[in-house]
Amino acid sequence: MTEITTAETWSAGSECRRHWRAYVAACVAALLLSVLTVTSTPRTYAGWVTIADENIETDLMVGLSNVQAWLRGTLHLNQGIKNHEVYVHHITSQSFAEEMSHVQIEGYDCDWAHYLREHHRVPWWENVLGLTDLSDPSQTISLIESSITAYANSVNNTVKIQVTDQDPVVAAMLADSVRARLEQFIVGQRQLLAIDYYQRKIQAHEIARQGFEEAQQHYADYTDSHQDLTTGKESVEEKALQKEYDDAFQTYNQTSLKVHRARALIGKVNSPFAVLKNPTVNYEPVSPHFFGYLLTYLALSLIFTTWVILFMRKYREKKGGEA
Q: Which of 208, 128, 112, 204 has its CA nearest to residue 164?
């Protein structure tokens, strides 16, 4: 008589429930590791400021026709960029971080780059692994770049600028410095646009002046040589030259007014945006987040524990089958 044996059946769920103590140990380890990480990570604070474009048109109307003035069909040098992503892109760029590295930190008698090298604390594991070396200028610039963030709100047409630092007072001061540097950048760009606009109007005015002088000379020459207008053809020609002269004078006069307007725009400096929320000192840290670390470590520990339990079960079955 042949003996028939059946393999023991099991499920992953029952196997995991059988080793519930391993999961408790994994949860305790995750909790302890989260506490260790949070206590050994320097706290980071945030200073932030909210700005919005100035949407009220206050441009000069000199040199504009009534229709142009009504339609605002002109170069809007003082109306705001309108695209808040431009602000965000500039603030978060590496070139802006390099510029901000030279900002003086009040109370520390040094710029931002030297302040980070002397006062910024890094977690102990970064020192052990050699991940952060603030004596390297490129890493200092990268840290400054990562400390500056900006968020554009297309619904409210606002931009929120945030700067993080381990000192809440310094974070607030740097947020205001970022706002000031952004304002300087926008005003400088508008000045360049205004100068380019002025030069183009000067060129157009010079062309109009030459056209006016030529039309004036043609009309004068014709009237001097045809003082006694006896034929209809000569009368028509004289009227055509008169109209050409009048049109050239009107164009010359309009371009002259536009040159005066463009010159006035160069010296006109308006605030490019309104500050909706001034930076304030916030003593509530934005990082590290205990629950964020706890959830991460819990997920990793539970996944690893489950893998070990199932792997050991398969391994024992394999060894038993070989025996």
A: 112
Q: How far apart are CA 26 and CA 298, in angstroms?
A: 8
C-alpha–C-alpha distance, residues 50 and 152, integer Å: 10
Q: How is residue 144 written in tokens?
A: 């400054």
Mean pLDDT per segment of 10 residues, for the chain of length 323 residues? 49 83 92 90 92 59 51 46 76 92 91 92 79 86 94 85 94 94 86 88 91 85 70 75 85 88 78 82 88 92 91 81 63
Task: List Cα–Cα distances, 77 to 70, 94, 195, 312, in angstroms.
Answer: 17, 26, 11, 71
Of 138, 132, 136, 144, the closest CA to residue 102 belongs to 144
Q: Which long-range contacts (CB under 8 A, 24 or more apart) does 193-199 make?
A: 193/75, 193/77, 194/77, 194/262, 194/265, 194/266, 194/268, 195/266, 197/75, 197/77, 197/262, 197/265, 198/259, 198/262, 198/263, 198/265, 198/266
CA–CA gap between residue 137 and residue 122 (Å, rounded): 16
Angle at 106 between CA 151 and CA 189, to 5 degrees: 45
